[in-house]
Amino acid sequence: MAKEKKTFDLKEYPFPTEEIPRLNIDNPETEKRIAAGLPVVITDSGLVRSALHWDLDYLQGNIGDGKFTVYKSKNKKFQYFDDKKVDTFKDFEKPMEHLDLTFPEFVKKLKTAKPGKDKVYLQQALNEGVGKRIVADFLGFNWSWVTEQQKKNKFGALTSNLLLIGMEGNVTPAHYDEQENFFAQIRGYKRFILFHPDQFKCMYPYPTYHPCDRQSQVDFDNPDYKRFPKFKDVKGYETVVGPGDVLFLPMYWWHQVESLPDHGHTISVTFWYKAGPIGNVVYPLSPQQKVSMMRNLEKMIHQALNNTDEIPEFMQNMVLGRYT
Ligand SMILES: CC1(C)c2ccccc2-c2ccc(C[C@@H](CC(=O)O)C(=O)C(=O)O)cc21
Ligand SMILES: [Zn+2]
């Protein structure tokens, strides 16, 4: 009997979206979409079948007594920033704080957080430091399926499995990553809003040398259409993933991720893979290749000028009245 479609009371955004298909792991369409670099929610994959019993108590009792990377934000947004680029930006104020907490300290903060007060987000690579039962659960992941997908689609190496534990309402603002991602949901519900890499012109990412490289400058809750006029034309895709769902999130696809309010804390595990070899170049270049090219050119110009203040004028001189 088909699973009844769960409906959620989702916040409206000022752009249209289409549903991301939810397909069974055995549906031939599933692998076709992965091969085509299209997002798909894979149901019943069993990818993290051995972790579906994870909850805060079990993790606290088994994950080990080391320190965990936890981000704290004054509001619901957890805007990623690259620490290494912060010093090139004098007036950059960090959008969130990085704490190293034991698991019990994290759980206490999560459970005693008052609405409207600080929110926390645990983000920790699953590595040898964890307790032996977590290692056993990790080994119980459906590695044969995900490794088969890695090989069939010529992905590069698995780089990391991140354990993510977020509070309800946490938002990771729109950004893109340069890795392929199988995103496995273990507990709670996360809304994913995705945009095709060809929507780059509507998303206005920060400059590559900015600490928030790869993130959109547009505040979805209060878009500045004067600075970002093309955001009016953006078109997205969306879905809500729940326990047992796996979202294939292709490299360079923009995504904003929200732990649904009023649905409790969320537990997820990501499977990030490096890009595979390019192979022979096919023209016209794909949107992903054009984004990669723009990044390389921006970095070259930054290095050549050796002065970030000169970049805006240099870029404008190159295109205004010539290519505009
Ligand atoms: C916001 C946070 C905790 C963070 C802080 C500082 C540095 C990195 C990151 C980081 C990286 C990945 C995620 C998971 C996910 C978004 C989501 O599920 O919220 C996502 O974007 C993806 O799987 O690609 C979340 C984070
Ligand atoms: Zn991401």
Write the layout of secondary structure elements.
Elements: E1 17-19, E2 22-24, H1 28-35, E3 40-43, H2 56-62, E4 67-73, H3 83-86, E5 97-102, H4 103-112, E6 119-125, H5 132-139, H6 143-152, E7 158-166, E8 171-175, E9 180-187, E10 190-195, H7 200-203, E11 236-241, E12 246-249, E13 254-259, E14 266-273, H8 287-305, H9 311-319
Parallel strand pairs: 1-11, 2-3
Antiparallel strand pairs: 3-12, 4-5, 4-6, 6-7, 7-14, 8-13, 9-12, 9-14, 10-11, 10-13
Residues 175, 177, 255 line the site of zinc ion.
Brief account:
This protein has helices spanning 28-35, 56-62, 83-86, 103-112, 132-139, 143-152, 200-203, 287-305, 311-319, and strands at 17-19, 22-24, 40-43, 67-73, 97-102, 119-125, 158-166, 171-175, 180-187, 190-195, 236-241, 246-249, 254-259, 266-273. It is α+β, with helices and mostly antiparallel strands. The chain is globular, with a radius of gyration of 20 Å.
